[in-house]
Design goal:
alpha+beta; Alpha-Beta Plaits; 6-stranded antiparallel sheet; about 45% helix
């Protein structure tokens, strides 16, 4: 029967930069059940970022980029010999388990989560050429900004209008019109927290550690890399990827 497993040999080219994008399934329903704050719930963002950090520890990618219910991994070493089925299934299930464990640690959510459907994530493997890596993450960061602008616009309108009325007002509005709408309500969207506008990054960053040379009894400075959760991401560009050694 092995011959019927027709997709099991499907692989990504191990010499190409590869991204795995994971998305929460029906997280809008989960958000309502758990009564998350709108448009952003800091506790939810902390939980999914911590789950992504556990995923980072397990698979050692170069970068994990998180916004909304989405996690993007820029892989370093390609796991499972590049087998797409394996990468999709294991990473999605790992993130699901990590997210569920983290959310169950919160007393505010523990009782409510038992009344929801099981949490799940979907996953897709995206092979890229080297010159498209920065462009890919710029694209996702632009989506993070759109989510921020649209989310604040919608939930600001919901203070005075029904769901249907708010959607009708927002229909076909351009970004500059949404800026004006929010400004009239006293909201300066460009001054919202960086993590809301640009997402959260997880990558390894160099730190200086002071030690003692046992032979000379002199202080020495050495470099170590630790996983860093960046809540103040800049706009993605080639310099960010070069400085943090994300394109090697």
């Amino acid at each position: 029967m092995k011959e019927y497993e027709i997709f099991s040999s499907l692989k990504v080219p191990c010499t190409s930069p590869t991204v795995v994008r994971l998305d929460g399934r029906n997280f809008s329903q989960l958000s309502r059940k758990l009564e998350f704050e709108k448009p952003y719930d800091p506790e939810f963002v902390r939980i999914i970022s911590e789950a992504a950090r556990l995923l980072f520890q397990e698979f050692s990618p170069k970068l994990a980029y998180v916004f909304s219910d989405e996690v993007n991994l820029l892989l370093g070493e390609i796991p499972f010999a590049g087998r797409v089925e394996k990468m999709d299934s294991v990473m999605a299930s790992f993130l699901c388990g990590a997210f569920t464990r983290k959310i169950m640690e919160q007393d505010d959510f523990k009782e409510k989560i038992s009344a929801t459907k099981p949490i799940s994530f979907d996953s897709r493997v995206i092979p890229l050429s080297r010159d498209k890596v920065v462009e890919y993450f710029q694209w996702r960061q632009l989506e993070s900004w759109r989510n921020c602008l649209n989310g604040y616009s919608y939930w600001t309108l919901r203070e005075d209008y029904s769901k249907e009325e708010a959607m009708q007002i927002l229909h076909k509005k351009k970004s500059n019109q949404l800026h004006d709408l929010l400004f009239e309500k006293g909201i300066k969207i460009t001054q919202m927290p960086t993590w809301q506008r640009r997402g959260v990054g997880i990558y390894k960053k160099g730190f200086e550690i002071e030690g003692l040379n046992p032979l000379t009894n002199e202080k020495v400075i050495s470099q170590r890399k630790k996983i860093f959760v960046d809540w103040e991401l800049p706009l993605f560009d080639k310099e960010f990827f070069r400085t943090n050694s994300l394109l090697k």
